[in-house]
Amino acid sequence: MHLSDGILAPPVLGAGFVAAAALTAWGATGLREEETPRVAVFTAAFFCASLLHFKVPPTSVHLLLHGLLGVVLGRRALLAIPIGLALQAALLGHGGITTLGVNTTLFGLSALAGAGLYRGLGGAASRRPFWAGAAAAGLAVLVAGMLLTACLWSLGEGFKLVAQYALLAHLPVLAVEALVTGFTVEFLQRVQPALLTGSTP
């Protein structure tokens, strides 16, 4: 799901950093001190999720959890995502440094889409927390996959097959993410509902 260095043109990379900076600034607006630990914990979860790989021949994919970030953190997910992506690129080689802005924008917008659906389905007050969380995570992965596909498709004929496969390869991720997020949201609603009701729209 991460775009690597050396693929996108400099104007696109620059636009990605501008968009990512705007999203991050919005995510930080009005941040309260008591929110910081929650953001830090879920940033760590987002980073660690990239370590869980599974094969989708001829490649492999990994968990994303940006949908869960959107559900739990709301727009504060826009703070967790660039930090997690920067660590993934620097320490694990996932994605690139020059594409950090584009990747942050891609993940940030899709996390917001998932958060919006979660709130539309009732949010923390939902009577079906599993399905609300699962739907939010599924939408987040789908939107991220569509944005990634659009980026690759724009590179020309040579990337169109890769673009199509990139979306198909993440359909298993969508299913796994939906299950993981659904169960996590249901668990949190039972034992620590404040983590969900505290999300910032």
Percent range of helical residues = 55-70%
State the order of secondary-structure elements, H for helix, E for strand.
Answer: HHEEHHHHHHH
Count the beta strands. Answer: 2
> Mean pLDDT across all residues, rounded?
87
Residues in β-strands, percent = under 5%
Main sheet strand line-up: 1-2
Ends distance: 25 Å
Question: What value does the Rg take, in angstroms?
Answer: 16 Å
Which ranges are low-confidence, i.e. pLDDT below 50, for 5 or more consecutive residues? none
> What best-fitting shape do the alpha-carbon axes yield?
globular
CATH overall fold name: Arp2/3 complex 21 kDa subunit ARPC3
Going by CATH, the architecture would be: Orthogonal Bundle
Structural class by secondary-structure content: mainly alpha
Number of spatially distinct domains: 1
Q: How many individual helices?
A: 9
Architecture overview:
With 201 residues, this protein is mainly alpha-helical. It has a single domain, classed as Arp2/3 complex 21 kDa subunit ARPC3. Helix content is 69%, strand content 4%. It has nine helices and two strands; from the N terminus they run H-H-E-E-H-H-H-H-H-H-H. The protein has helices at 10-28, 36-49, 66-73, 77-92, 100-120, 129-153, 160-169, 171-191, 194-197, and strands spanning 53-56, 59-62. It has a two-stranded antiparallel sheet. A hairpin with a 2-residue loop joins strand 1 (53-56) and strand 2 (59-62). Helix 2 runs antiparallel to helix 3 (66-73), helix 3 (66-73) packs across helix 6 and helix 3 packs parallel to helix 8 (171-191). The mean pLDDT is 87.
